[in-house]
Write a sequence for this structure.
């Protein structure tokens, strides 16, 4: 594993269900040690892909390696080297916290002193100390997710797959969960995480965007934004929001306007020119612009642009 | 590497078994289903379903009014099987009692009963039964016949000095193996068959399908657990539970209902294990065709429990069934098991007689285990 460059390296990965192509010839390369985000809307094929990579679902076509193991021939050997947390909560709800940890320790052959050490570590990391004997069913969603994560990495896998780990969890728990992911990543674990939250995607070192079964873009969040959003974005704080909105919309060189709180996000062809012209234009109508800034496009802006450019049809 | 790939991990199996036991012991419903249910079933069937009857209300119309006829009536009442509701004065009393349901049986003793009996001539008594409840009527009829016959025999003994002793009311029937016609003796073996099906097939199927329904199977599939390890880990706890249930039923049958085992316990165990294997195989098979607990329950009831109750001879004698259903019954293990276990319980016979049942049961078990194990591997592998 030490000289392995890519934790995941697959080509042409495809899965069809009857006539529905859930995943359509995707190529993925995940460099070892990164937090790799697999971003896409619901139904885009995220879970199907992750389940193929974990060896739960047989691909219809494709080849490659996961954790250095051949996708087709060595999926059994791979299983003891990966951690997986499924989209649906999949621990035993009628077992206590500790019993779940003990069960997965047994299943992954973690024993002796190591078992005690790992279970203690998982309890601490998940903030579940003192709750060892609580039935899992009685835990709040955020705690459950952290327990599931603890169970998934009890055997210290070098590769961790998380399928929408934070769905249905409150914002505070989501943040805490991402802190845990960062902590795990620092230990050299490759984390492959799917999400449809744009703000979560920002935490990733690299991203792949999947849409309608196809990977439509790859790169770091910064790369994706700079490469795929061709136009500049300005943020204006005008005194009369609605009037300003109507005026800016019709101004020359303006491609689009959106209201964000008490500000306007204006897509323009030439940022520098617009930065000078727009306050003047508004000033003529007696509207005071307190602030004009060029801002970075959000990942969401990038994603919208990427999909429009890719020509992949929604299904 | 290859050897390691196919070696089963004891630690893994133990973890699965421990989880399974925790699950059963913690869930009140499954606890009820596994332990309280067999006992209540035994009590219910033991006390509830009775093929034997007591205190059948009886109306007697005694035209003879002799000491002989009184003796007959007295003996019938003392037997406990009949309860005298009326000594009728005229025939309309009999008719009325049977019509209103005041009595379910009536006996009419002719005026010359004592005279003809003493003279050794044949006497005809009239017995009437309310056929609405045909089961009770049939049994009451056989009891009454048996008692009149006994009376005839007694009479025979008391008038031994007479040359002609043919009473003409001889009804010679004798019940073997279950001389008191105690239905509980007949039912306990049947209950064993049903309980083993419930624990073996239904609980096993539910425990596997539960993982599918709750999504926990995902976490199991992605782990290095092999299908065979999962199957062993899932099955062993239910084997132990089924054997415990078996012990409970046999012991309760013996101490509560006084049902003895005439044959050998060892052979009973052999058949039970064969049958349990068949029911576990059925359970695993059901788990491979059902995705929700509800459909698993339905499927398990349909292909395991109903045949065990209806096509095994447990409740309804197979000999009285239409040919088609009788043929169908050969495809389910219940038939062989119930025949065998009743043989062991009531007749005290063993493998020397029951070897065909043992062979067929073994063949069925092997077949269903092979089928379900390969489907299980295919589904999970």
């Amino acid at each position: 594993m030490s000289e392995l460059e890519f934790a995941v390296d697959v080509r042409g990965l495809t899965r069809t269900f009857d006539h529905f192509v859930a995943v359509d010839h995707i190529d993925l390369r995940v460099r070892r040690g990164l937090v790799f985000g697999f971003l896409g809307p619901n139904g885009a094929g995220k879970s199907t892909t992750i389940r193929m990579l974990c060896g739960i679902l047989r691909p219809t076509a494709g080849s490659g390696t996961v954790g250095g193991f051949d996708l087709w021939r060595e999926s059994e050997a791979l299983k003891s080297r990966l951690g997986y947390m499924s989209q649906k909560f999949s621990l035993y709800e009628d077992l206590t916290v500790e019993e779940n940890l003990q069960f997965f320790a047994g299943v992954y052959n973690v024993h002796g002193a190591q078992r005690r050490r790992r279970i203690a570590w998982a309890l601490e990391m998940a903030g579940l100390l003192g709750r060892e004997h609580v039935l899992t069913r009685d835990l709040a969603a955020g705690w459950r997710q952290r327990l599931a994560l603890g169970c998934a990495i009890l055997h210290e896998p070098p590769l961790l797959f998380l399928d929408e780990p934070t769905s249905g969890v409150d914002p505070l728990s989501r943040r805490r969960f991402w802190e845990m992911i960062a902590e795990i990543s620092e230990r050299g674990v490759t984390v492959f995480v799917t999400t449809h939250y744009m703000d979560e995607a920002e935490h990733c070192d690299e991203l792949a965007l999947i849409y309608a079964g196809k990977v439509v873009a790859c790169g770091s969040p910064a790369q994706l934004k700079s490469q795929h959003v061709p136009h500049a974005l300005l943020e204006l704080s005008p005194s009369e929001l609605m009037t300003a909105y109507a005026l800016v919309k019709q101004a020359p060189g303006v491609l689009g306007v959106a209201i964000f709180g008490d500000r306007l996000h204006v897509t323009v062809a030439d940022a520098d020119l617009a930065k000078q012209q727009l306050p003047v234009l508004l000033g003529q109508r007696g509207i005071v612009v307190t602030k004009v800034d060029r801002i970075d496009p959000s990942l969401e802006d990038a994603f919208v642009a990427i999909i429009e450019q890719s020509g992949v049809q929604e299904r | 590497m290859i050897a390691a790939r196919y070696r089963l991990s004891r630690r893994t199996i133990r973890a699965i078994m421990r989880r399974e036991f925790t699950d059963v012991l913690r869930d009140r419903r499954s606890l009820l289903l596994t332990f309280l249910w067999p006992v209540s079933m035994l009590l219910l069937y033991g006390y509830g379903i009775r093929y034997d009857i007591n205190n059948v209300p009886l109306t007697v119309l005694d035209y003879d009014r002799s000491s002989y006829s009184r003796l007959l009536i007295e003996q019938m009442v003392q037997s406990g099987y009949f309860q005298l509701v009326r000594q009728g004065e005229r025939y309309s009393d009999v008719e009325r009692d049977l019509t209103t349901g005041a009595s379910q049986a009536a006996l009419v003793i002719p005026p010359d009963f004592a005279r003809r009996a003493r003279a050794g001539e044949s006497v005809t008594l009239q017995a009437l039964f309310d056929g609405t409840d045909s089961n009770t009527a049939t049994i009451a009829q056989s009891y009454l016949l048996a008692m009149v016959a006994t009376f005839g025999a007694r009479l025979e003994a008391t008038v031994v000095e007479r040359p002609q002793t043919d009473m003409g009311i001889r009804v010679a029937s004798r019940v073997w193996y279950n001389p008191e016609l105690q239905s509980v003796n007949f039912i306990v073996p049947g209950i064993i068959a049903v309980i083993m099906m419930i624990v073996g097939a239904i609980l096993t199927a539910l425990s596997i399908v539960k993982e599918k329904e709750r999504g926990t199977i995902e976490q199991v599939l992605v782990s290095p657990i092999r299908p065979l390890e999962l199957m062993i880990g899932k099955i062993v706890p239910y084997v132990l539970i089924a054997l415990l249930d078996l012990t409970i039923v046999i012991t309760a049958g013996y101490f509560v209902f006084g049902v003895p085992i005439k044959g050998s316990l060892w052979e009973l165990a052999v058949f039970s294990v064969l049958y349990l294997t068949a029911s576990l195989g059925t359970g695993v098979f059901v788990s491979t065709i059902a995705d929700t607990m509800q459909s698993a329950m339905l499927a398990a009831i349909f292909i395991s429990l109903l045949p065990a109750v209806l096509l095994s001879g447990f409740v309804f004698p197979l000999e009285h069934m239409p040919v088609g259903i009788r043929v169908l019954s050969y495809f389910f293990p219940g038939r062989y098991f119930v025949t065998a276990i009743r043989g062991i319980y009531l007749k005290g016979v063993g493998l020397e007689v029951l070897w065909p049942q043992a062979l067929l049961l073994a063949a069925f078990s092997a077949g269903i285990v092979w089928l379900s194990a390969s489907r299980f591997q295919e589904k999970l592998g």
In short: The mean pLDDT of chain A is 89. Chain A has eleven helices and 14 strands.
